[in-house]
Amino acid sequence: MADNSPGITVLMATCNRAAVLSETLQAFTRVDRTGIDCSIVIIDNNSSDNTAEVVKEYGAQLPISCLREARPGKNCALNKALRECSLKNIVVFTDDDVTPARNWFQEIVSSVGKWPGIAVFGGKVELMWPDNKQPEWAARDWLVGFAFPRHHYAEGEAFYKPPDYPLGPNFWVRKVVFEKVPSFDETIGPKPRNRIVGSEASFLINLQEHGFQILYYPQAVVYHRSLPEAFTLPWLRHRAYTWGRGRIRLYGWHRLDLYRKNKVLWCMVLVAEEFYNVLRLFAGIVLRDQTRNCERTVSAMIVFGELHETANQVLKNFRAKQRNHLSR
Asked: pTM (2 decimals)?
């Protein structure tokens, strides 16, 4: 490969999803890499299945390598790659359950060439439903927005307006951004336990706060394969709860304006909201209509996530103040 060829490093974390990863890597063999110096790095986040063997199987078809990160958490895995890999000029982040369009790499290279002053980009994410059929209850825009990573930010190329940002399955950056934001927040994101949605979001918001504009480039497309377990109400409710927690971590405490005005009233309002949402949750569970059941219970779980993560953050803040006071 010539030295002046455009270079791409793809970073993909995975954990105990060997069959899903295999389908993704098979899709990567069909992506056009002509004229591109490409490397694909799989970060095995302490899998106990045959993930390593799957990666090895594709070694002859793809420019692929594998790292292993024992600490649990997607962001721990990504940070290991950022620390230890020799990154090319364009660093692409994606997930282990995507099918990229054949021209995906070519469009990524085109985007950075067309926009030399931009360092952060997001692409389009389409959804692939099981059996190619979207369930009726999953058609609500607000539900798709948090539960399934469909991303159509604009009709054409457009700059994201904060607090908007790309989605995790399809964004890329110039390597220079790591001089300002060198790593991901390891306290947030997918983990076996204590999951909080928002791993890539926290990183991208941090980039925006450091002055980086983010460009939506819809010509670069990946298809996210929705897995069957995502179409159960228990899964959606859990996802809603972790998403609500993530919103607090990204945007601040629940009803923060009221907290600043009257802390006692704020506490009373949060307790009242907790009891109200308990009633909403149980009222939704007994509904036989699956669409209404989903809407009520999932929306209640989002609020529970916001309330409980706010309580966590308040407690951490109180403990930190106590430690500072005692250390004086």
From this structure: 0.90
Superfamily for the 7-231 domain: Spore Coat Polysaccharide Biosynthesis Protein SpsA; Chain A (3.90.550.10)
Taking the C-alpha atoms of residue 123 and residue 137, their distance in angstroms, rounded to an integer, is 26
The Cα–Cα gap between 119 and 303 comes to 35
Q: Where are the domains of the chain?
A: 7-231, 233-327
**Alpha-carbon torsion (135, 20, 149, 27), positive or negative:** negative
pLDDT tens for the chain, 328 residues long, are 334 678 999 999 999 999 999 999 999 999 999 999 999 999 999 999 999 999 999 999 999 999 999 999 999 999 999 999 999 999 999 999 999 999 999 999 999 999 999 999 999 999 998 877 777 766 677 777 777 888 999 999 999 999 899 999 999 999 999 999 999 999 887 766 667 888 889 999 999 999 999 999 999 999 999 887 777 888 889 999 999 999 999 999 999 999 999 999 999 999 999 999 999 999 999 998 888 898 899 999 999 999 999 999 999 988 888 888 777 6
